[in-house]
Every structure is written in structure tokens, then in C-alpha cells.
Amino acid sequence: MLWPHVDEARRKKPIHFPPLSVLAGAAWLAGSLVTLTVGLAVAAAHGGPAVWSSAEDALRGVVPALVAGFLAQVLLGALSYLMPVVLGSRPSATQQATKVLDTLAVARVTMVNAALLLAVLPTPRRVQQFSWIVVVVGLAVFVLLLARAWLVARKAGSGPMTPPGRGARVDPDKGRRLGHALAGLGVAVLVAAAGVAVDPAAAGFDSGAATQAAGPAAQSTGETTTVSLHVQGMRFVDADGRTLGAGTPIEVPRGDKLVIELTNTGDQRHDLVLANGARSPRLAVGQSARIDAGVIDGNVDGWCDIAGHRQMGMVLRIDAVGGDGDAVTPGIGRGSGRGMMHGRMMDRGRQDSPQAAQADGTSAVPSLPDLLADPGPGFQARDAALAPASDETVHKLTLDVTDEKIEVAPGFTQTLWPYGVDGQAGTVPGPVLRGKVGDRFEITLRNDATMDHSIDFHAGSLAPDRPMRSIAPGESLTYTFTATKSGIWLYHCSTMPMSLHIANGMFGAVIIDPPDLPPVDREYVLVQSEEYLGADGSIADQAKINAENPDLVVFNGYPNQYDHDPLTAKVGERVRIWVLAAGPNDGTTFHVIGGQFDTVWKEGAYLLRAGNSSQGGSQALDLGPAQGGFVELVFPEAGHYPFVDHAMVDAERGAHGIVRVTD
After folding, report:
1. pLDDT in tens, 280-297
2. How high is the pLDDT of residue 352?
3. Which of 55, 414, 484, 509 is least buried, going by the fewest C-beta atoms within 10 A?
4. Which residues 6+ apart lie within 8 Å of 110 measured at CB?
């Protein structure tokens, strides 16, 4: 495929836009095919179920290069050949149109391809975003030039015929092409610099990277110690496979310069931040970074800075040894590829949330408002009414994950990561999905947030390896399952730490009706969860989650909302209430004050059915975290019937509402 282009270029220099664009496109096709071949070979080497997942990742990785590099440039190059002929009614008009489409050809082709290279390589995210803008603009210029070429050709076609010999094409760019190429390259370089300037930390630059955070200047020995680390689960691990954490800090000779070579061998993005200011960019799976930690003259803490990862144990400590009476551990090597470890206790007192740590390990959130206050006139609770299951047997839906500031209590917001439907703003809980046994669900998860996320449907029975994997910002995956069992099933983000992702709003319900479920007059769904509040506007507090110390316990995402905007029913109506305990840590004991349940269905089975011969009743539906069921009752008279989690401290934290019953 390449040879005709090479042969043509050898006989005639490609100095104009059509051959330059087509040749660049051919080069991108060749590069993409080589990259894809290598990716497929690596996938095959993995063996087992990982083959197709890795192969898909390899194919997905070359799609941008194929579309923007190959397809777009070959198309524009071909149009640059053909359109002047179409536009020109005489040779002079064709020549003029060709000249317009050839404007700054070398600069345009160089700029687009240099920017595209930055966009598809593993450069910092901001650099990639800015580079894509340059690529799109560079390609779109063709449309403007085409419009101008049409005007020029039209004018030339309506004028007098050009005398023979005077219409010969002139090369106005002769001697300037090197300058044009450098100018195009300069645009791409400036864009990369702008991306780094906007987000220097993501690019691995930090003004404090080579110095300690405080204290006198370190006395350098002039030597360098290099430490190789990788990721295993939620831990940093050294080259010998030892897990860094409590009892295993890294020892570095005092005064040595430390270089850390970090490779992300985990299953989601990670980074490493040191207390002295040095840090890595956020690394995708398989990426590596070299961190210059500067001269080590004291103990330095390190951690993964992604929300919740620090509390999950992604911490380390660097100890300066030798000097001041300390003996250097025998055998410690400078430049040996790793530091040595020893058995001191790790200081894990730091928190990565902005609040100050308390003695019990939770975080003190300053100036919390009255979380159970009246939300004011005009408040509208989340609609808890549940529509019947449709007759559809295939349910297709796109769930979008975004970072959203959402009011979680009167006058108090948190930055949550909710699931939204088809581009709409997310809600907490996420949308309720409903179907019947045998229905097929095709759910596309699209990550438009700022960190890795995933989804786990308890309603599906299948190997979790691929559909429940974490995806990076900008990625998507399709999760397909067939409902084989009835129940009210939890779905949630399964990216670690799961407790934080669930507490930060990433959960919802799937209801699969039991066979022959009788109709009722009204159906409601209540999803109970806990809220562990960070500062106003921030995310949930992982330290509170770990301590199991919630600020609020709520139905459908907001405390006491159905006190202010009650559910409704009429005397004598049969009411079914579906209940799901989303956690992340606690269950519920659901109770309606003044009501008695004649039907109780829990975790796929009836515990009690209306008309049972014993005339028995039920007062509460007890559910552990992630369990669900429904209750049915008939209200005997008009009035206000409170419903609560009968773990009374949780009812007092906001798990409280009212059913207003009228005649």
C-alpha cells in the first residue's frame, strides 16, 4: 500500500496539499496497522478471557488515528484534487481554485499531524484536549478554503479568457516551505506548552519537586538512590514484591537524591504524591512515571491522591537513614534499582480530605448547617412513584457519570458522581430500571467525570471481569445481562474504594417483577443510604465512612424529604412499597407507623401473603446492606402515617417520611 506513494514521492516532490495530505494519511494507516498488530499479538499472549478485552482496547486505541489521521486526511487530499476540476469552467478557474486550496499547505499538514501525534500519544490530558482542538481546526480550515475557492473560480470563470501561456501555475511558496513547516510545528508545541501550563501537576511538573517542604536545605551527598515501585490492588509494592504500608517504609541514605520509578500495574488510575511536593501525573493502567523526589534529609510521607485511595492503604513513607547516629542498613544500594525496607510503624494519621482529623479518626466538618431543617416553601421531593413494568423485553439505556454539585440537605451541597440518563444531569439514587424475568438489559456506561468509574448490576449473573471493569474519563462500555431472577437489585460503582463511590451517590435500583405479580393501586420505591459529609461543596468523607459514622441516613437521597412533600394514598387502596438498602455500610428495618403489612416479599421470596390462613401480619422489613424487597398494606382510615428506619438513631438522622392518606 505504501509503495505507490513512496515511488510517486521519489519521482516528484510532494510539495502541495493534495499529495502531502494523502501521504500523511497513508502514513497514519500504516502506523495504525502496526500498532494494532502489536496490540493483538500482546492480547493473544495473555490468553484466556483477557484476550478479547485486550484486543478491544487495542482496536479502540487506534480508532482516533484511523479517523482523523487516515480517513480525514485522505478524504481532504482527494477533494483538493477533484474540487478545482468541478469548480473550474475553464483552465484558469481550475488553477485559481487549486491555488486557494493549496494555501499554507505545508504549515497546515505539519500542524495537524504534529497535534494529532500529541493527541493520540499518552500525553497529559490537557495537552491531548488542546491538541484535538488544533486537529479539528486544522482540518476544518479546508471548508473555509473550499468556499473561497468556489468564489475565486466563479470570478475567474466569468472573466475574459487568459491568453495562452499566461495561466501557467506559479509556486508562491518556493523557498518558504521549511519556515511554514516550522510554523506548523510551533503551533503544536505551543499547544502542548499551554496544556502543561493549565495543569502542571498532571504533567509531572511541580515547583517543589526537588526540595523538602520545610526545614533547612538538605546536604547532598551527590549520590542517587533509585526505587522501583508498582501497584498491586490498593497498595504500592517494591521491586521485590514487598507491600509498602505499615511497617515497611523505604530507606534512603540521608542526603541522597531519590528517584522513584512508578508503574501502574493496577486496574484503574493511580498517582503518587509526596509531602515534599514531588508527584507523578495520574497514570492509566500500564503507564509509568519517573519522579524526582529531590534530596532526602528527613522522613517523607507519600500517598495516592485519588479520592479515597489513601484511606484504602495506598500510602508509603520514605525514611532518611545514616548520619545523626543512624546506621545505614547494610547492603543498601545507590542506583541499585530499589531502596531497602525496614519494620517501623507507618504514620497514617494524615487525611486526604480537607477537614482536620479528630481523635476518633473521623473528620470534623466545620459549621454544618441544620441538616434536618425545613427546606422552605416550594420544596419538591423526588418522585417515589413507580410505573409498572413495560411490555418491552429489551431495555437499552445510556448512563452518564458526571461530577455534579447537588444539594444533599437544606442549604448544603456535595460534589457527587451520580448516574444520569442519556446526557441528563445525574440523580441520587440513579434511575430505577424495571423489567421482568427473561428481559435483556443493554446498558452503556459513559464516563464524563474526572476519575475512573464503573458499574455493577446485581440483577445480572455473569463473570464481572470485563463488564464491571473501571473505565477512565472519556471512555464508555456496554454492559449486557439477562434478568434470570426476580428481585429489587442494587447497582453501584465497583471502583475502589467502593465505599466512597457508593457514599458519593453512585447507586440505584433494578426491579425485576416476580412472576404473576398482582397489580396494586399505588407503588412506591424507597432506596435508603447513608451520607458522610465532607465540607460544603466537596465529596464524601472517607474517614467517616471507615469509622461508620454517617451524618445523615436518607430515603431517595435527601433527609426527611417526604415529611415536607408526603407520599399519598387513599383509604382502602392497596399500596406496595419497594425498599432497597444501598448502604454502603448499613441496612434498614423499614416500618410504617400505624400500618401493618399483610404482604412481605424479601430477597426473592414471600415471607407473608395477603389472605394467609393464620391471619398473621408484619411490622417491619429487615434488610442488610444491598438487600431489598417490598411490603404491601391497606390504610384503614385517613391520616398521616410516618414511615421510618426503625433503627431509631437512623430515623433521627433523616430516614423518615410520611404517607398522607385521604378518604
Report:
1. 988 888 889 999 999 998
2. 40
3. 484
4. 180, 181, 183, 184, 185, 188
| Residues 50, 55, 60, 61, CA torsion sign | positive
Helix ranges (DSSP H) in 124-176:
125-158
What pLDDT shows up at residue 635?
96
pLDDT of 406 above 80: yes
Burial of 558 (0-12, 13-18, 19+ CB in 10 A): buried
Q: Count Cα atoms within 13 angstroms, Cβ side, for 552.
A: 30
Strand, helix or coil at 492? strand
Q: Helix crossing, 177-198 with 105-120: angle to 10°?
A: 30
Instruction: Find where cell 478491544 sits.
Output: 56
Which triple of cell numbers denotes residue 416? 457527587
> Around 542, how many Cα atoms within 13 Å sit in the side-chain half-sphere?
20
Q: Quick one: pLDDT at residue 215?
A: 39
CA 208 to CA 230: how far, in whole Å?
A: 23
Q: What is the spatial distance between Cα 90 and Cα 72, in angstroms, rounded to a whole number?
A: 29
Q: 632, 617 in Cβ contact below 8 A? A: no
The angle subtended at Cα 200 by Cα 276 and Cα 539, nearest 5°, is 75
C-alpha cell at 272: 503518587
pLDDT tens-digit map of 110-132: 888 888 888 888 777 677 888 88
Q: Who has greater pLDDT, 544 or 44?
A: 544
Band (pLDDT 50/70/90 cuts) for residue 357 is very low
Cell numbers given for 132: 484535538
Asked if 267 contacts 468 with a C-beta cutoff of 8 angstroms, the reply is no
d(CA 48, CA 615): 56
pLDDT band at 574 (very low <50, low <70, confident <90, very high): very high
Residue type, 468: M
- DSSP helix/strand/coil, 524: strand
| The three grid cell numbers given for residue 33, joined into one nine-digit string | 496497522
**Dihedral (Cα; 421, 423, 428, 430), 10-degree rounding:** 20
Q: Cα separation of 453 and 400, whole Å?
A: 11
Q: Which of 118-122, 123-127, 311-315, 555-559 has the highest mean pLDDT?
A: 555-559
Q: Specify whether the CB–CB gap between 152 and 97 falls below 8 A.
A: yes
Pick the closest to residue 445 from 488, 482, 495 (CA basis). 495
Q: pLDDT tens, 515-527?
A: 999 999 999 999 9
> Any idea of the CA torsion for 134, 135, 138, 140, to the nearest 10 degrees?
-110
Distance CA 213, CA 295 (A): 11
Helix (H, G, I), strand (E, B) or coil at 407: strand
pLDDT at residue 348, as a whole number = 30
Report the half-sphere exposure of 29 (CA within 13 A, side-chain side): 14
Its pTM stands at 0.60
- What are the cell numbers at 196? 502543561
Contacts of 659 (CB under 8 A, 6+ apart): 566, 567, 568, 569, 575, 592, 595, 635, 640, 641, 642, 643
